[in-house]
Every structure is written in structure tokens, then in C-alpha cells.
Amino acid sequence: MKYQSYDINNFRNIPQVAEALSEQQKRDIEIVGSVLPFKTNKYVVEQLIDWSKVPDDPMFILTFPQRGMLSPEHFETVEKLIDAGAAKTEITAVANEIRASLNPHPAGQLDLNTPVWCGRELHGFQHKYRETLVFFPGQGQTCHAYCTFCFRWPQFVGIKDLKISSKEPQTLVDYVAANPQITDVLFTGGDPLVMKSRILAAYIKPLLDAEIPHLRNIRIGSKALSYWPQRFLTDDDSSELLNLFREVKIAGKHLAFMAHFNHPAELKGEAVRAAIDRINDTGAIIRTQSPLLQHINDSPEALAEMWRAQVALGCVPYYLFIARNTGAQQYFSVPLVKAWQIYREAYQQVSGICRTIRGPVMSCLPGKIQVLGAAEVQGRKVMAFRMIQGRNPDWIGRPFFSEYDDSAVWYRDLKPAFGDSRFFFQDELDGMMTAAAECEADNLE
Ligand SMILES: *Cc1c(COP(=O)(O)O)cnc(C)c1O
Ligand code: SF4
Fold first, then answer.
1. All residues at 6 or more sequence positions from 384 whose CB lies less than 8 Å from its CB, including other chains
2. Residue 199 Ramachandran class (φ > 0 left, ψ -120 to 50 alpha, else beta)
3. What Rg do the C-alpha atoms of the chain give, in angstroms?
4. Where are the domains of the chain?
5. Which of 39, 246, 292, 385 counts the highest number of beta carbons within 10 A?
6. What residues line ligand 2, using a CB cutoff of 6 Å?
7. How wide is the angle at C-alpha 30 spanned by C-alphas 28 and 36, nearest 5°?
8. What's 302's DSSP letter?
9. Residue closest by Cα to atom 15 of ligand 1
10. Distance between Cα 313 and ligand 2 center (Å)
11. Is residue 141 within 6 Å of ligand 1 at its C-beta?
């Protein structure tokens, strides 16, 4: 199969769309897709989406814009413009206003996490947690298709500051070499595997050649196994890619492939299975992650089936996230208490081998906060949490408590339990934010 993508301008040409969707449904896609990113491809349309189940099919909801993703007011505003035959520039201007109101830069991504080194800000680098440097290669900032829930959505509609990515492999090597606490470099995007193998190699090989003893793990975050498994099978540089993975292993480093799967349907096809086998053959290990998403995977059965399938194929379940507070969060998010109940029921259904999954986890300003669950302590209903990652490593692993709140969808909605006015990390976090504000931070969530 040759890669062919579709977007807002040509999706009506997809035969399945023409056949299965009403005019109203197509209009909904056009309206929402004018504000939030939309891109799908032939493989997703032909192999992943079950058109007999549309509009409820989870793979359809995962890549085609849904009406409920915009508030009724925003929807109506754009609808009127399109009905009135407004010019593209006018629609874009209104779309940009709506986008700006959807918290496009959550969790201090733009400022707090950008390292300052040798007197300059390293754009395209995020160094939030001590051991792991996140790197956004300049050529890897799109994806083979876009997920409707994506928290990186602003970069796909062109409003994110382009400085968020880097094309400087040498700076990457120098920064890692100079920071002995870094054991992991995580390549992310977008999807770094939209890059040609030789371009990815131009980032990875210098890291290997530099023989940095403290660098142990090279991670690649990618959705390509789901949206374009041909990347590992029939693309003309697929063997080159797999050989690059082998070279990482030969250099004595671990290649951690961080795969995004949201639903068991993504693991069923022959192509994805063959692609997983080929990656496993290189000595890389595939770990899997997903947010818990209303309308897509919010049932214990779907999650348990997904984790079992992953383990059967030789992958390691890693993180189950809470949907982030950006974009169409209200459409996809599941309240923390409900998320924990779903997680727990799924966790109970699988054997210990699948229980490498950690969740539900909020990736938020202070760190990665895991919801441990609801409990009753001396007659009071509370919720328990711990950080799996923290801006301050000393925060990691300490249990803490909030009042019970079954409508909370994010840590900012929570009130500390037992009459405390602040969570234990809050003062220190405020201090970090003030320090960052002094070096001209804005836009903190
Ligand atoms: C999740 C995340 C990491 C990696 O965390 P692990 O727990 O080691 O997988 C690194 N940096 C940022 C900014 C993250 O959000
Ligand atoms: S593959 Fe990842 S970065 Fe790309 S749209 Fe999906 S969630 Fe976002």
C-alpha cells in the first residue's frame, strides 16, 4: 500500500465517507476540522475503521473530528461562517481565536521545561525530569494521521511557536554529554518516524558515536505501528530503520520504542503484527501507552483486551494517562474517580504480566501523578495519589490525599484532604514558577 493522506480539503473523496456518512455528518467534520487538526490516511480508513459501526466505531472517533469536540457556541460560530461562504482567511482568523481559548500550551511546556544552556534557551528540548531529556526533531513534527484527542494539536494547526523543535544534533550530543544525570533521550513529536530513516539516523548516530557512558536508553515515541505499520515493512527505507535500531543495541544502549495504542482494534491486523515482530527482532523493546478516552476506550474490557494483546505480541504495557486539559478535553476526558474504577476493573481482569501498566496518570505541571484510588479514612472519603515523576525528584513516591470529588477531571480541580490548604509540593512548585516567570515565562497552566 502506498501512503496517501486525507484532510479537511479532500476527505469527501474517500469512498467510505461518501457511502457511510450523511451530509450532516460530513458538515460536522468540516466545521470541527476547520478548528482542530484533521488528517487520516488510506490504511486507517481501509484497515482500522470498521465502517459498519460508524459513527460509533472507536477508530473513526480517533481520527475523524466529532461534533461534540467543540462547544455548541464555537460550533455555531464556525457553522455560520461556512454557511455564509466566508473566505478561508476569515475562517482561519476565527478558528485561531477559538484555538487560543482551548489552553494550547498545557503544563508549562513552552517555558518551564526549556533548558537554558550556555546562555541560550534550547528550543526543541524539554528537560523536566532529571533522567530524561525529551527532544523534538525538526523534521518529525507531523504524524501519519492525527488523533482527535491529541494534546499536541496546536502544532498541527500552525499556531504553536515553531521554535518548539530543533534541527541541532550536535547541540543534543553536547547537552547530554554535559549532563551526567541524563540516562534517557526521548525522541518525540509529532511522530519522529515520519522522518526518513537517514534523517533520524543523523540525530541518533552522533549520540552513539559520542560514546556517552551515562546515556543508557534511546526512546522513540511513535504511533506509526498503529497508523502506518508499512513504515517497518514496505517503505523503501524500512530496513534502514530497523538496522538503525540494531545499531543502538550494538552500541550497548537500549532502544525503547514507546508505542501509542488506544484500542485493541489497532493490534489486530497482519501488518501491525508483522511490524512488531520485526522491531522485536532488532533487540528493541516496545512499551505501550495511551490515555483513557471517553467514546474510544473507556471500558475495562477494551483496556484489558488491549493489554493482553500487547503482551501476547511481545510488548510491555507502560502508562495509562488521563486526557490532558487542552483542546477537546471535555469530549474525551473521564473523571478521575471513574478512570480509576475502569483502570482497576481492567487491572483485575489480567494476570500480573500485564500489570506493568501504571495508571491512571495525569501528566501535569508538577509531574506525573497517579490516581491510587478512593478510600475511606476514619469516616472521611478521600482520594489517594502519588507522583511517578516529579519536577523535584524528592516528590516521587510520596502518597498524598485530596477530598473525594467524583467530578474532578484534573489535579487542579482537587482540594487537599484533612483540612490542609495546599498539597505538599505546591509551595516549592510556586517557587519554581516564579523563578521561571522571572526569565520571561508566560502562559502557565
Ligand atoms: C512522561 C515524560 C517523560 C518520561 O517519563 P518516564 O516516567 O521516564 O517514562 C519525560 N519527560 C516528560 C516531559 C514527560 O512528560
Ligand atoms: S500520533 Fe501522537 S502526536 Fe500524533 S496526533 Fe496522535 S497523539 Fe498526537
1. 371, 372, 373, 374, 375, 399, 400, 401
2. alpha
3. 22
4. 5-100, 116-328, 364-445
5. 292
6. 143, 146-147, 150, 152, 189-191, 223, 260
7. 95
8. H
9. 363
10. 22
11. no
Taking the C-alpha atoms of residue 397 and residue 369, their distance in angstroms, rounded to an integer, is: 10
Amino acid at 26: K
Please give the single-letter amino acid code of residue 34.
S
Any residues with CB less than 8 A from the CB of 55 and at least 6 apart, and which? 21, 25, 61
The tens digit of pLDDT for each residue in 239-280 reads 999 999 999 999 999 999 999 999 999 999 999 999 999 999
DSSP H or E segment with residue 88: helix 88-100
Ligand 1 in reach of 329 Cβ (< 6 A)? no
In this prediction, residue 443 carries a pLDDT of 41
- CA–CA separation, 132 and 328 (whole Å): 28
CA-nearest residue for atom 8, ligand 2, is: 150
363 within ligand 1 shell (Cβ under 6 A)? yes
Name the fold adopted by 116-328: TIM Barrel (3.20.20)
Q: DSSP secondary structure string, 122-156? A: -TTEEEEETTEEEE-BGGG-S-SS--TT-TTHHHH
**Under a CB-based contact definition with an 8 Å cutoff, are residues 69 and 331 in contact?**
yes
Reduce the DSSP state of residue 183 to 3 states and report it. coil
Ligand 1: centre distance to CA 394 (Å): 16
Contact 229, 221 (CB under 8 A): no
pLDDT of residue 157: 79
pLDDT per position as a tens digit, 133-159: 999 999 999 999 999 999 778 888 776
Task: Pull the grid cell for residue 426.
Answer: 505546591
- The pLDDT tens digits for 87-107 are 999 999 999 999 988 887 765
**Residue 441's pLDDT is what?**
44
